[in-house]
Amino acid sequence: MDKIQTIKDRILLFLEKKKIKKEAFYKVTGLSASNFKGIALKSDLGVEKVAKIITVYPELLMPENLNWLITGKGALRMALKEEDQQTADLLVNGSSNEKIGDLLANLYAQYNAQDKGLLFVQNQISRLEKKIDKQNKHLEEILSLMKSVPK
Prior knowledge:
Blueprint: H1 7-17, H2 22-29, H3 47-56, H4 63-71, H5 82-92, H6 96-148
Helix pairs in contact: 3-6
């Protein structure tokens, strides 16, 4: 995974690589600039907003790009083959918006499940580190007591 941590960070990278001005992005998506600044940059972006973004920018809908956008895994593909562009256009039109929403909801659920799993592991590591620190303190006490005992 790259150093970019959030979907919002990846969207900003996409805009930079496509040379799309942020103001234009905010205008066509209806999103507020405040969502992409300061502390708000680290917050989640709702499924509805992601669906709106990929509707406006169908190249993000391609599987490789969508995986990159949601999970941060893989790489952003900037140039689409003609058939990929046609597929993206078809997916954006009509009743497929429901399918996009379902797909995004599923990806978010997987992402959140992985995130919760990581939090659990981090908590377990923290608990074990505290336990080891406590044991190390006891060992240091025992060693200092042993040094003070005459031979």
